[in-house]
Amino acid sequence: MGAEASKNSGRKPNFTFIWTIENGSALLVSRYLESPQFIAHSIAKTKWKLMVNTEFRHETLHLDIQREEDSGPDTIEIEFELSILSDNGSVSGMQTGKETFPISHCFHLKIFEDRHEVFFRRRAEFLPNDTLTVRCRMWRTGTEISRSETWFARTRLGLDRRCFVWVIKEFSSLRPEQKRTHFVNPTPHGSPQLILSLFLSERNGKNYVNIEIGQNDATRYYNMFCKCSLLESDGRVVHSEKTESVISLHFRKVCIFQEFLEKDKLMNKESSLLLNDELYLRCEFQIEADPVWSRIEN
């Protein structure tokens, strides 16, 4: 692919598609997004779309290109270049390919082995103002370029963010057969009601605090990021755990922080974690929501 990249670097493409994704960090939760459909008039009026895929299990970032239903030839061979643009417009993570596309055919390219490179370590470079910019350049093989087109598209991602402090009163009186429950009501974004349950479990003579997250009324699947933090009475974080999970139509239980804390350590006289016998848990959720809008700009 490196040879293809150097060969194409000085060539004028038949078609360029630049896709700007606002609230780009939400891709860590939604993990998959399709661009608006675009028509490459200079490539036999064929129709295409791009997809961004942030693989959950493998921590990678992929870009896909797919030919859509159109009135063009049954198959068409193109060379293409997919890349992420940095804040100054320079290209990074570029990958190239050459493929024969029948209608509905999709080609999959790994852009970054580790998605954290884009979303965390080099965030200022790739997500200025939380905006990710993807570029696709296309050449039809075996043809002379009579005209070059550029299309721009923009998508604004939605994300249901919820953050609150859950105060568990009279914590020392909690017994293994009891549960403390907190309900997080649905929002206009459409994500379901969440049910937080705190309870004790026993292992090897020790009692542990567990936090279970369930849901009540999901109408579809949602990807979710969750972080729970134990706070000192002055607001400092003492311990935190995070997880990624899926809210399912068919299961009430979403995830659990098993043995989040040992109860005896909380009850220690030297501990400042139970001021007035109250336990403070900060709960943060990011839940997938539909894009606010997605459109071609020119």
From TrEMBL:
Name the SUPFAM superfamilies on file: TRAF domain-like
Alphabetical list of CDD domains matching this protein: MATH
Per UniProt, residues of the MATH domain are 14-138
Family matches, as InterPro entries: MATH/TRAF_dom, TRAF-like
The entry's protein name is: MATH domain-containing protein
